[in-house]
Amino acid sequence: MRKGIHPEYRPVVFRDRAAGHAFLTRSTMTGERTVEWEDGHTYPVVDVEISDVSHPFHTGTARVLDTAGRVERFERRFGKRGGA
What we know:
Elements: E1 10-16, E2 21-27, E3 33-36, E4 42-48, H1 56-59, H2 67-78
Parallel strand pairs: 1-4
Antiparallel strand pairs: 1-2, 3-4
């Protein structure tokens, strides 16, 4: 790797605002605010809107869309397309 062109890779706390969950990982992102972590060290914090704790796919609250009903409604409205 060339020296001086890559951002610094360091520990950062990501905090999920929707679920109130935070986790420590390494990233090149920077935050203007800092937070004291469980280990007593201070790290920059980045607030995110959604993470695996609050995402509907991971929590099991995802809704299944009725795609078959939409296709049938479209075909009723505009007619079926002829084959060949």
